[in-house]
Here is the input.
Amino acid sequence: MGAIEVENVSKRYGNCQALEQVSLDIQAGEIYGLIGPDGAGKTTLFRILVTLLLPDNGSARVEGLDVVKDFMAIRRHIGYMPGRFSLYQDLTVAENLDFFATMFGTTITENYENIREIYSQIEPFRDRRAGKLSGGMKQKLALCCALVHRPSVLFLDEPTTGVDAVSRKDFWNMLYRIRESGVTILVSTPYMDEASLCDRISLIQKGHLIETGTPAAIVAQYPHRLFGVSGKPAYPLLKFLRRCPDLLRCFSFGSEHHVAVEPGTISPEQLQARIQAEGFSDVVVREIEPNIEDCFMELAKEERQES
Amino acid sequence: MNETENIIIVDKLTKKFGDFTAVDHISFEVHRGEIFGFLGANGAGKTTAMKILCGLSLPTSGGGTVNGYDLCREQEKIKRHIGYMSQKFSLYADLKVWENIRLFGGIYGLSGKRIRQKSDEMLHYLNMTDLRDELVGDLPLGWKQKLAFSIALIHQPAIVFLDEPTGGVDPETRRLFWDLICETAEGGTTIFVTTHYMDEAEYCDRVSIMVDGVIADLDSPAALKQHYQATDMDTVFRKLAYQAKRE
Here is the structure.
């Protein structure tokens, strides 16, 4: 039995099909990532799984319990950190934590071990109001509140959105330590670079899961050869590459452009010579491995062509 | 360099809130026509500094100019001569596309005739002519952002401030948005941009990184990577931001 099982779940708001026939199977103890842009349906799926929203069709179970019939029982087993900061701004750090513990019929003392590692970092500010905390501390407090009743499944809806690169790294390290205690974690994020930090992921776009698997397996299925191309000036180079009819796709990835080509059509050396002949300087063309963003763009394109 | 080459000149700019020094004697220049990345961890003082540069907040001490206008004495002129777009607030969701253009064109003092002309040009350039009567709230996020960016440029400002313009959009839309930024920069508009995506820092001509209210470093991405012996800007950012003392 999986920790979270979703079968053909659909949800519509008026004219907007937020989720269409979504199925998922998440194993106990894994960090599972739901990766996609705003409006893809991530939050809708979370709300259905944490029993705050009813699906139109399909069924879902958390720890074997049905999200519709057994909703009260599910709520005792799960921790939920919604996307927006959801704590009481006027209560202090300690009061917020106390409140959430009491709601679940427990106390901070009873479950202190479960939250110690994270709580110890904000405990010096226990008498500060939640509304006066920095972004990083709010995030830690929200995580403590979601963990204080020892849930077996943790739902984290975009916990790192708008958070800087350093704090994001810290947050993921906390998740790994939580996983060690056997908790299943479903986490959503719009940051594609966080995909590789998950055990398995689903890529979601416009209410559809466009791919599911380990990050490595998804990358291995990328259908083209990929070249990393750099040269000066960078933006005119990008425009030149897009005008070449034998190159499939071309996008900027920081200091390099990623160029997809059909295997057997052009070599890195040939492309390098062609770019140099156009007068660009410092040209480097090398074969590279795709990353999750390359895969997402490729899969999203296939999805558009099919629909 | 002087005001003809530098569109922003900031000298010992400081902002205090009570005992807390959010921005601590920062000095830097932004060259006309460049894409300038303004990076920093949460709480480093970016937003406070940006509000001052946009004429929305007064410095406690120090000062400077934006497009030749004084940060302390000419805030209204600054507001009229800059463009501004953020992901959090940009357009009115319950107004139609053309109504948003009409509203912002009016706010910036364009004539009715000029607004109609700009609307046609803008919608044609964005391939959105068929969407002029749609409510902005019904547009996909990527289209909203492109429209918001174009509207921020409706009065042809010499500089546009973009505050995390690409948060939450899908990877392809994010890149198409940067194409639009690069295209605009090629046309001579100065771009001042904040972002949490470190790959986007690579598209900037120069990047400053704020840590604890001061500018910890400022240079081209290539020079920063070389100096910190890093292969990407993410590593540069983390090396600098880990020095932060304040929470």
Summary: Chain B touches chain A through 39 residues (CB under 8 Å). The beta strands of chain B are 6-17, 20-31, 35-40, 61-66, 69-70, 82-86, 159-163, 190-194, 206-211, 214-219. Residues 6-241 of chain B form a domain with the Rossmann fold fold (CATH 3.40.50.300).
